[in-house]
Amino acid sequence: ALPSAKMGCFTFIKVMMILFNLAIFLGGGTLLGVGIWVTVDGQSFLEIFGALSSSVLQVVNVSYFLIAIGAILLVIGFLGCYGAQKDSKCLLMMFFSVVLIIFIAEVAAAVVALVYTSLAETLLTAVVTPVLKEKYGADDKFTHIWNATMTEVHCCGLNNYTDFTDSPWYKEKRTYPEPCCKDLQPCNNTLAAESDVPGCFYQILEEIKTNAGVVGGVAAGIAALEIAAMAVSMYLYCELDQK
């Protein structure tokens, strides 16, 4: 009775593996499709989801992100689904390897994010602040994105209002962007200093800390799924080894 029970267990796990990876494959395909659609035809996407997305460039950036994630999910789904269905040790090992690499990359990213927050701030300040001083007010798309971000997140500049000093906007209007003065007019030096609106880096960091529980829960869930997927693929691999 034992071999048949074992065989039943093997078949059940194999079917679950196929269904799970088929769902991943379809999800990846959907994300890839949406990503390509947004890249090719961002305008109609904006018209449909206009209220949700604050600027064109953010949508374009999101589209590349969707294409990357979609492609990865397609590969994982295909390897897992086809590997389990065909009892292919090679594909199962490839599936295990890809998921393991992603798992390690996520853990590394989490560690880096925790350890190097201050370094990220320094790097961002070095890179973003000069661009703000050079482009804000001169480049319409860039200005629109920053305005949308500052209004949405209730922040001002990367660090604070001084990031806009010497920008084309300041040189022309002699005022700072309105979000730097909590939308009061005229947003001059005195009012901006009094308003003391936090920089966007700090504000986004606070948002992340506020939602850390949710983010952590989602991350833990994804990690658990990845570990389960690796365990199942290794189980199927080892069972095939014994056949």
Which key terms come to mind for this protein?
243 residues, mainly alpha, Cd81 Antigen, Extracellular Domain, Chain: A, 2 domains
Describe this structure in words.
The structure is a single chain. The longest helix has 39 residues, at 2-40. The model has no long low-confidence stretch (mean pLDDT 84). The protein has helices spanning 2-40, 42-48, 56-85, 89-115, 117-135, 140-153, 168-173, 189-195, 200-210, 212-242. It has two domains: 1-86; 108-242, Tetraspanin (Cd81 Antigen, Extracellular Domain, Chain: A, Orthogonal Bundle), CATH 1.10.1450.10. With 243 residues, the chain is mainly alpha-helical.
Give a brief rundown of this model.
With 243 residues, the chain is mostly helical.
Topology at a glance:
Layout: H1 2-40, H2 42-48, H3 56-85, H4 89-115, H5 117-135, H6 140-153, H7 168-173, H8 189-195, H9 200-210, H10 212-242
Helix pairs in contact: 1-2, 1-3, 1-10, 3-4, 4-5, 4-10
Task: Summarize the main sheet.
Answer: none
**Poorly predicted ranges:** none
What would the average pLDDT be, to the nearest integer? 84
Tell me the fraction of residues in β-strands, as a range.
Answer: under 5%
User: Number of domains in the coordinates?
Assistant: 2
Element-by-element helix/strand order: HHHHHHHHHH
Supply the CATH superfamily name of the largest domain. Tetraspanin
